[in-house]
Each structure stands twice: as structure tokens, then as C-alpha cells.
Amino acid sequence: MEVTVAELGYRVHPLYRLWDIAKAVRDFYSRQPLGAFGLTVLVIFALMGIFAPIIAPYHYAETDILHRLEGPSLKHPLGTDNLGRDVLSRIIWGARVEMLVGLGAVAISGFTGTVLGALAGYFRGRVDWFVQRYLDIQMSFPGIILLITVISMFQPGLIQVMVAIGIVLIPAVTRVVRSASIAVSSMPFIEAARTLGAPAWRTVVRHVLPNVFPPVMVAVTAQLGQAILIEATLSFLGYGVPPPQPSWGALLGPEARKDILKAPLLSVWPGLAIFLAVYSFNMFGDALRDVLDPRIRRAMSR
What we know:
MetI-like fold; globular
């Protein structure tokens, strides 16, 4: 019988924990190269957003009319837009907006979808029926119309965009959690907890939610890329984060389209940033699924 160090009562030194984390990261990079690539790109984008005021050559709103629509140069590595603003600086500052919108929207959809899905899968019956009907009603509306409607009800802003995207993403998380919750709720240890008279809320919190965590993590990671793509679409249509705050979708908006023949690279750089972010989230999500799913993990270890 295998006995762990914790069961013997010994305290694990923090350096050993750091070593275990480092070993897990090394194994992830060796076994999941595409996922590791995605994680690396996402870390770079996150650092860009966090340290944008330090690493950006210029402020995102700083204009220079005398050098508008210039191509790449030493002074402006990615060129300038129609107002002479540095494109590289706006992409770096835009990374902060994209990450905030993605994390905020996914936090809303992840929390709400997890609660609704866990309750529907555990209680079944009327609770499940009401949750399913809510999802059917919401999914019957075209997503872009629902987004524009929610944003138009309030003054446009970063928070409003987060909330609108989060609401649209709720059904996907709810369905994933509901399916996992139904499977977990039929297991013997859940039936034993019910038989012993354990409160429903305690059973859901202590037993159901921890067991549906892996599929939730995979769904949420994939939704981060989807949230960035939705925000870019909204900004492209003029319903995203209002100026002068830069977002990658806004850099592809009407101003860039108007000058696309004069400066075609204006649309290339933000489009490339959006592609890399969405692709990286998808690759990292697939790798995370392979790591967290025990069946796939066993198949890969053979």
C-alpha cells in the first residue's frame, strides 16, 4: 500500500513543492508542445497588458499628425495610423483591454454557468426544466443581436462589454457543467450523502463542484479566445470599448478600413494579434483537456 508523506505527518518543504511545480511545467512543455506554445504566447500578451505603461514606446492616445500613415521604421516599428499614433503602442495597450474583457466575461459566464449547471444536474426535475428553458430562450436569439441589445441599453464602456459577452457565453458553460453534474450526481458517494441526510447545498459545494471542475476549466479556457473574438467583432462594428481606449478590434474598425489602400499593414498587425491570442487559447485549452481528462491521460501514457 502506497503511503504519502502527508499521511505520515511530515511537513513538506516549500522548495520541494516548487520542484514539483517546475517538474509539472517541464512535463507539460515536453508532452504538449502546441499547448506550451499557446501558454507562452498568452503569458507574453498578459505581461504586455500588465506592463503596458512601461514597455510601450508611446501612450496609446499620443498623436503626431506630421507622421501619419507611415510605414514601419526605427521610430515606429509597426508604423502609424491616420492620426499619427504608434501602432505598436496601441497593440500593446490593446492587450490589456483584451485580457480584461476576456477574463471579466469568462468570470461572469463561468460563475453563472457553473451554478446553473450544477443545480440543474443535481436536483433535476423542475429546476432542470427551468434552466433548460432559459437556455433555449437565450440561444434562440442571434448572439450578435443580443450583444448589441445589451450594450445599447447602457452607456458603452469596458464593464458593459464584459457583461454583454459574459451573458452570451453562459449557455455553453451551463450545458457542460449540467452534463458533468448529472454524471457525478449518480455516483455512489453522492447517493450515500443523500441517504445520510447531508444538506443539498453542502453536497453540491463539497462533492459535485470539485468533480465538475476539470470540464469547466477546459470550457472556460476555450471561451477566453471566443470572448476576445467577440470583443473584436463588436469593436469592428462600433459597439465595443469606446475610444480613445485601444482594442484590437477597434484597430480594424472604420478608420483602418478607410486607409487600407494607403497603409495596408494597419489591418495586418491587429489581425495577427487577434489570431495569435485566439489560436493560443484554443491550443492551451486542448492541452488542458488532455491533461485533466484521465481517459486521455491514460491513453497518452501507453
